[in-house]
């Protein structure tokens, strides 16, 4: 006998678990199946996917610990605090990170219980379309559901000739679990993971070299932000080499030996204790048996969806990293909510133009909307308001004045088209810009709103004033 549900969600990451909870809130009988990718010690699946187990949350825990370590070693003295030379106990740091992961993944199981979502332990695999809906094999059982939401996420992309063992040569999973601070660490890819994990291990004492294929640094960010970030990260001690071509990585006496060609075409070799490969992620559809039911994938292996996450099959939806768009947890969650609401006949909606990006380095980098170079390429004239944190009293008090807020507004209508921040707490400050853009605000709207003093948010306020060339404190 097959189990029958209104909705089956395949995958318990941020896209999947949020879709399942919202669908249950809307009155559907919901199950979510999760394969054992992140099993707990009892062999039970851990929910939360990449984000909670080997992504957003563990990386931010390590970023926090390493930030405190760096502050204790290099920041405290300037404020008259002496603590001697700090030491890092890596197993304790990793244990704390694991405890946070356990707490949060367990918490989602609690949310499933509270919302009456049935958790099925096993990999979901399409069988056929039957009279009572889609038939999906989960473990040894067959589940039938009228609607299916695929939220199977992504996996790290690896490179040929560089076998990842997650001990010496690591992807994101191993990079979050190193047992000691490597003396020399090489990272392939100066993207989000490369910069975040490079920052963690550099702060803790590693000599970090990042090898990036592209000739430009952080090409997806606004050009001013990318320039400032490159300046700051190099000053902090990250050795970032652009325009390289990676060859092979082989085990060596020390750990690993990496062959590459530098930007001038010269053959180079680096010896390191550890290597992290962070060259992007690929959609994960392994074992889904998409071909059995004719589920359409696009040219990059992602599940093909329309602007509302519908696949080519009636009643089958897909959300998160496995579909197009930025691979971000909050984007996956938004899509999950949208799909659940659309299934319920509501007007579910996801505004892909206001999805914020954050890189949790120090200083943090965050943006929403278009970059100045994108607006130029689109032929859109804009006003630019750019204010440094150095002009802000709160930033001075915190001893952290790096960076700026740059606001771009339409030259004719003044509507905010993009906000780019590099500086302390950029991850939190960007929310104001997201809200403003979501409500179609003009820079004048933000300029006329009272901001608490003294706060870093005053820099956002000043950037809005600067769009009209009338900043008050700069
Ligand atoms: P996933 O989180 O990948 O979840 C998919 C789940 O489906 C997994 O649990 C998997 O086991 C399961 N699954 C797969 N196939 C099947 C199947 N057939 N049957 C049953 N279960 C299946 N994003 C941010 O927004 N902020 C950050 O700070 C951030 N930091 C990151 C740091 C790192 C190191 C990494 C790697 C990623 C980070 N991300 C961050 C990205 C974020 O983790 C992903 O965008 C997000 O997890 C995608 O959610 P998802 O639900 O689509 O997929
Ligand atoms: P990424 O796409 O951010 O960066 C990959 C980098 O590797 C790029 O700069 C690319 O040019 C470079 N690269 C690609 N092939 C290469 C090669 N052969 N040799 C050298 N360099 C090469 O991908 P990353 O850092 O792996 O992260 C994956 C995704 O996870 C991110 O795109 C993001 O969606 C998500 N993520 C989000 C975070 C956040 O929101 N703060 C944090 C970490 C990851």
From TrEMBL:
SUPFAM superfamilies: FAD/NAD(P)-binding domain (SSF51905), FAD/NAD-linked reductases, dimerisation (C-terminal) domain (SSF55424). GO terms for biological process: 2-oxoglutarate metabolic process. Its cofactor is FAD. Its main location: cytoplasm. It catalyses: N(6)-[(R)-dihydrolipoyl]-L-lysyl-[protein] + NAD(+) = N(6)-[(R)-lipoyl]-L-lysyl-[protein] + NADH + H(+). The active site is at 453 (proton acceptor). Signal peptide: none annotated. Residues 5-336 form the FAD/NAD(P)-binding domain. It is found in: Cytoplasm. It holds the Pfam family Pyr_redox_dim. GO terms for cellular component: cytoplasm. Its EC number is 1.8.1.4. PANTHER family: DIHYDROLIPOYL DEHYDROGENASE, DISULFIDE OXIDOREDUCTASE. The active site is a redox-active disulfide bond. Belongs to the class-I pyridine nucleotide-disulfide oxidoreductase family. This is Dihydrolipoyl dehydrogenase.
């Amino acid at each position: 006998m097959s189990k029958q549900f209104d909705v089956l969600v395949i995958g318990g990451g941020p896209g999947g678990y949020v879709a399942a909870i919202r669908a249950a809130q809307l009155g559907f009988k919901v199950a979510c199946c999760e394969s054992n990718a992140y099993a707990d010690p009892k062999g039970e699946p851990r929910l939360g996917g990449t984000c909670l187990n080997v992504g957003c949350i563990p990386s931010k825990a390590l970023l926090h610990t390493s930030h405190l370590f760096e502050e204790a070693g290099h920041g405290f003295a300037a404020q008259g605090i002496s603590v001697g030379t700090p030491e890092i106990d890596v197993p304790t740091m990793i244990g704390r990170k694991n405890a946070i992961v356990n707490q949060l993944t367990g918490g989602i199981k609690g949310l499933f219980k509270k919302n009456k979502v049935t958790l099925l332990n096993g990999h979901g695999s399409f069988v056929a379309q039957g009279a009572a809906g889609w038939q999906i094999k989960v473990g040894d059982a067959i589940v039938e559901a009228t609607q299916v939401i695929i939220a199977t996420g992504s996996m790290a992309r690896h490179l040929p000739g560089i076998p990842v063992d997650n001990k010496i040569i690591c992807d994101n999973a191993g990079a979050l679990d190193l047992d000691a601070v490597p003396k020399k660490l090489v990272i392939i890819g100066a993207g989000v993971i490369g910069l975040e994990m490079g920052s963690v291990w550099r702060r803790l004492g590693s000599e970090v070299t990042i090898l990036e294929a592209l000739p430009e640094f952080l090409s997806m960010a606004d050009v001013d932000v990318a320039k400032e970030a490159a300046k700051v990260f190099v000053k902090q001690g990250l050795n970032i080499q652009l325009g390289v071509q990676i060859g092979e990585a082989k085990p060596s006496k020390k750990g690993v030996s990496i062959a590459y060609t530098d930007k001038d075409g010269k053959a180079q070799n680096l010896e390191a204790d550890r290597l992290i490969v962070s060259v992007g992620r690929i959609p994960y559809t392994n074992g889904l048996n998409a071909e059995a039911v004719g589920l359409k994938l696009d040219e990059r292996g992602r599940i093909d969806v329309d602007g509302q996450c519908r696949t080519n099959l009636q009643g089958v939806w897909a959300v998160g990293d496995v579909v197009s768009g930025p691979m971000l947890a909050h984007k996956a969650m938004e899509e999950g909510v949208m799909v659940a609401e659309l299934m319920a006949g509501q007007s579910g909606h996801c505004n892909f133009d206001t999805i914020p990006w954050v890189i949790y380095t120090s200083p943090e980098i965050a943006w929403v909307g278009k970059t100045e170079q994108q607006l130029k390429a689109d032929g859109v004239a804009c006003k630019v308001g750019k204010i440094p944190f150095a002009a802000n009293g709160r930033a001075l008090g915190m001893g952290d004045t790096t960076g700026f807020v740059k606001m771009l507004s339409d030259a004719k209508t003044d509507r905010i088209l993009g906000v780019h921040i590099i500086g302390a707490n950029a991850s939190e400050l960007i929310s104001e810009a997201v809200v403003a853009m979501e409500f179609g605000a003009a820079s004048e709207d933000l300029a006329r709103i009272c901001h608490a003093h003294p706060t870093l948010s005053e820099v956002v306020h000043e950037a809005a004033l600067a769009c009209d060339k009338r900043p008050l404190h700069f």
